[in-house]
């Protein structure tokens, strides 16, 4: 029997005896071990004639402390008894309930920090602190016990500097413990204190505000009160002047990484590019930060694509520097070639080779004549080769962050090129992961983007898997349904793997079935939820070329 009020009830014994108080009244009894670990004996009276049934607890297992039952609260949470005698669960500091409606299921971290307590990058600073929790008892699964002479401060610091340590326990001795924490309960007067490692993120902007100090805040407050009209007038003038002055200062404010003389590509003047594009008259497409126009170099013998960046006051300036630095250091047949740039006053433009055959999205979803099966296989293998180069074959990997058919372009010879590095993330030296805000396109985002955790090149592998399945099926991932409900293309393809009807993935097209199955399986492996289980580019390239 299943009790909706306690959805995790396990029934040990059920009597189906009927005690007839009247001809239309039934009484049923059941004995259950409820989710809180207490054995209870219930009676259910059904009166009939539209009257609501009545449920009573006839008997329950006696217990002086409801929290004595191990497992009454899930991992990373602890049990405490309220004044009315009922038990409830609370999360460790820095954690929240994994299910808002089921507090007994346990808790998970609000933020994770990887294998380092303190880290930073261009966008986010990650800080770890130890938060104290007193009067609790837990199952002791320590992996390291420190000498009894270890002080409480040393105990916290040693855990903070240990990437494996998540909990420091301090009582008769100091010990280190990993997650999950189990069998927690409130024990008033306990001589053991635990310290939980809690992570916080701060943007550079908020850090600057924090560092300004109370004196600056006081001065600002006085200035706002006394000189409010003057400040308002100054702000109006500043807003008018800010954009142009920022652009004029930009060349001097660029960091040492963006040195025009150190980049082996040509620098164009704005006037040159305005002439080359006939006043930016022929638009090829639009992106998040700019518009692409077709042009011809002044010597008249080479078509070009000119990306004119907009909204430069905020993200656009960073995107311009990021894209130039990323592409200028790459040389691969499957990456779009950057011919030059313009960094003049308020103008930011990028000059690319012109690719006349458009994007992969145009061929797959907006063309009457889609590429043949062999051509589609060649396309996904070429993209894998380009990603392998970005991730493994250059000094300092580049995470593209926005792999999708719209960013896969095709030149006049049919060569595939990965384009649009505006969201790319550059890793430095031996760095293998980084913290950054969400980048990319809905439908192609790996699950870790939403988990406030470090990202690696595996986010590109996930996006590649979605793109691969879209390419071999000629179907848009976000437009698919299973049993009338929306699903992504990986779930859709997996259903056909299970049913053994893979031909439907290729829309009935006559294809090599062994090759089709291998491609589908590679796509599914690329889109696994856990990054460590996803294919890498070398495996994908080798797997595809075996057939």
Automatic annotation (TrEMBL):
<keyword id="KW-1133">Transmembrane helix</keyword>
<feature type="domain" description="EGF-like">
    <location>
        <begin position="63"/>
        <end position="101"/>
    </location>
</feature>
<keyword id="KW-0418">Kinase</keyword>
<keyword id="KW-0067">ATP-binding</keyword>
<keyword id="KW-0430">Lectin</keyword>
<keyword id="KW-0547">Nucleotide-binding</keyword>
<dbReference type="InterPro" id="IPR011009">
    <property type="entry name" value="Kinase-like_dom_sf"/>
</dbReference>
<dbReference type="InterPro" id="IPR017441">
    <property type="entry name" value="Protein_kinase_ATP_BS"/>
</dbReference>
<keyword id="KW-0812">Transmembrane</keyword>
<dbReference type="Pfam" id="PF00954">
    <property type="entry name" value="S_locus_glycop"/>
</dbReference>
<keyword id="KW-0675">Receptor</keyword>
<dbReference type="InterPro" id="IPR000719">
    <property type="entry name" value="Prot_kinase_dom"/>
</dbReference>
<dbReference type="InterPro" id="IPR051343">
    <property type="entry name" value="G-type_lectin_kinases/EP1-like"/>
</dbReference>
<feature type="binding site">
    <location>
        <position position="307"/>
    </location>
    <ligand>
        <name>ATP</name>
    </ligand>
</feature>
<keyword id="KW-0245">EGF-like domain</keyword>
<keyword id="KW-0732">Signal</keyword>
<dbReference type="InterPro" id="IPR008271">
    <property type="entry name" value="Ser/Thr_kinase_AS"/>
</dbReference>
<keyword id="KW-0325">Glycoprotein</keyword>
<feature type="domain" description="Protein kinase">
    <location>
        <begin position="278"/>
        <end position="547"/>
    </location>
</feature>
<dbReference type="InterPro" id="IPR000742">
    <property type="entry name" value="EGF"/>
</dbReference>
<keyword id="KW-0723">Serine/threonine-protein kinase</keyword>
<dbReference type="GO" id="GO:0005524">
    <property type="term" value="F:ATP binding"/>
</dbReference>
<dbReference type="InterPro" id="IPR000858">
    <property type="entry name" value="S_locus_glycoprot_dom"/>
</dbReference>
<keyword id="KW-0808">Transferase</keyword>
<dbReference type="Pfam" id="PF00069">
    <property type="entry name" value="Pkinase"/>
</dbReference>
<keyword id="KW-0472">Membrane</keyword>
<dbReference type="GO" id="GO:0016020">
    <property type="term" value="C:membrane"/>
</dbReference>
<protein>
    <recommendedName>
        <fullName>non-specific serine/threonine protein kinase</fullName>
        <ecNumber>2.7.11.1</ecNumber>
    </recommendedName>
</protein>
<dbReference type="GO" id="GO:0004674">
    <property type="term" value="F:protein serine/threonine kinase activity"/>
</dbReference>
<feature type="transmembrane region" description="Helical">
    <location>
        <begin position="215"/>
        <end position="239"/>
    </location>
</feature>
<keyword id="KW-1015">Disulfide bond</keyword>
<dbReference type="GO" id="GO:0030246">
    <property type="term" value="F:carbohydrate binding"/>
</dbReference>
<dbReference type="GO" id="GO:0048544">
    <property type="term" value="P:recognition of pollen"/>
</dbReference>
